[in-house]
Structures are given as structure tokens and as C-alpha cells.
Amino acid sequence: MAGLSGLPPEIPVTPLVLHLAARPGENGDVSHVLAAGAAQPAPAWSTALLALAGLWWLGFFIASFRTKELRVERRLYWFGHGGAAVLAGLALSHRGWQAVLGGMGLVVFVTLLYAVLRTPYLKIGGRLISASDSDRRRDERDRGIAPRPPALENYSTSTPGAFWWILLSLTVLSAICVALPPHLDWRSWVGLALVGFMAPAVGVLDGRGRFPVARGQWVPAVLAALASIPLYGVPVVLYAAGYLLGRRLSVSYGWYHDRAGRHAKRDVE
Predict the structure, then answer these.
(1) Strand (E) or helix (H) holding 128
(2) Does the pLDDT value for residue 269 go beyond 70?
(3) Which of 93, 132, 143, 151 is most buried per CB count within 10 Å?
(4) Where are the domains of the chain?
(5) Which residues does residue 144 pair with via DSSP β-bridges, in sequence order?
(6) Strand partners, 124
(7) What is the pLDDT of residues 53-87, one digit of tens each?
(8) Residue 123 belongs to what H/E stretch?
(9) For 195-222, what is each residue's pLDDT tens digit?
(10) Cα dihedral sign for 174, 178, 179, 185?
């Protein structure tokens, strides 16, 4: 139809669309027609695929609790999340390739992030990629290797490098939440409260262990300091105060290292 030549092919020619296109003087330009098309509900098959993606992930998630072997858990994790990503992409295919890439990309990003931060599941060419020292020890036990005691410079959850890059990410997100919204509400302060708690606590740990500032992780530490400018430098001040306080306390590397040392001796025996 000549009157509808400006419409994209994905907008269905319904009576409502014909009515809007035929009366531009009263209903405005083609944007009204586009809005009418965008308001169309998702096809039934798309909803079914999204539900199937959730069930697929849930099935593999439950199955992971029925095994104690790390290698089996690792396969279940990647098959479950990978299948869910593919099904989610197919469910969004009616919205175009941008929606497919966006949906699959979001699932893949969350899957990789969680695998690195909280699991021993990301392993490439025999090399484990994990921010958690306890997950590294579990992988070594699974391979029949006596776990090495954690290095003294490590935090209880990760290496200094991984920990400070995570802290930088939290600082950036907190700065964005505070700087962008025109009207702040309680949600804008959640990230800031988390950083405000972690900064002095990490400072005390670094000071008590007699480590250098930020345990030598200068690049993420400097970037975190720059990111704290919208926060009026409060995280930097809190970290410095905690670090100076820790230097006045007795030397300690934390309960985690004492417990891990006992476990390492037991593994050797």
C-alpha cells in the first residue's frame, strides 16, 4: 500500500495500523504507528522458549547438587547456562538480531562473571581462571594434588589483583548511581554503602598484614581513587583511615590463613 510505504515490514498491517496511517493529521506521524506495532504482545512460541530456557537451566542446576565430582559439576554448569543462552536468543529472534545478541550476551556475561568470582568452573587449557583461592584449592584436590597453602598476600576470597579490580568495579558503579540520577533515592546509596563498608575493612586488613598500600595493585587502586571523585573521595579517606589503624594493631593475616594452613597440613598427612 502506498500510504504505508514508510512502515518497516515487521509492523503488521492491522486495522489499528491502517486507521492511524490514514489519519496523520489527527494522530501524528509514523511514530504513532511504530508505537502501535511495538505494543504488540510477544508470540506464544517466544514465551514458550523463554519458559523452556528457565526450565533447562533449572534442570542442570538441580543436577549439579546430585554429584560431588568437580568435573561433572563443571560440565553441568556450562551446558545449563549455554543452553539457556541459546534458547533465550531464539526466543528474542522476532525482535531482530540486535535483541538476539543482547539477550545472549547478557546471559553469557553473567555466566562468565559468576564463574570467575564464585566457582572453579572456568578452566582453559588446564589453567583455572578463578578469583577465589578456596576454589583453586578445590580444583587441586580434584586433580589429586595436595593443595598449596594460600599465599599470605591473598585475601580470604581472592588474589590481590582480582580483589582490587572487583573493588574498582564497585566504586565505578557507586559513582554512576550517585552522579546520574536527578533525584536520589535509597537504591542510589546501596553501592556507596557497600564501598563505604569495604574500604575501611580492607584498609585494616592491609595495615595489619604490613602490606604496601593496596597490596601493590597500583593500577586498579589509582583508577578507584579517580572513580571516587564523584563520591567526594570518601572511599579513599576511609581506606586510608583503616590502613593507618591497622598499622597500629598487632600483625595478623586473618583467620582464613590460619584455617587454610591447618587444612593444608591435614591434606599432606
Answers:
(1) strand 127-128
(2) no
(3) 132
(4) 2-38, 44-130, 160-248
(5) none
(6) 127
(7) 999 999 999 998 888 889 899 999 999 999 999 99
(8) strand 123-124
(9) 888 899 999 989 988 899 999 999 999 9
(10) positive
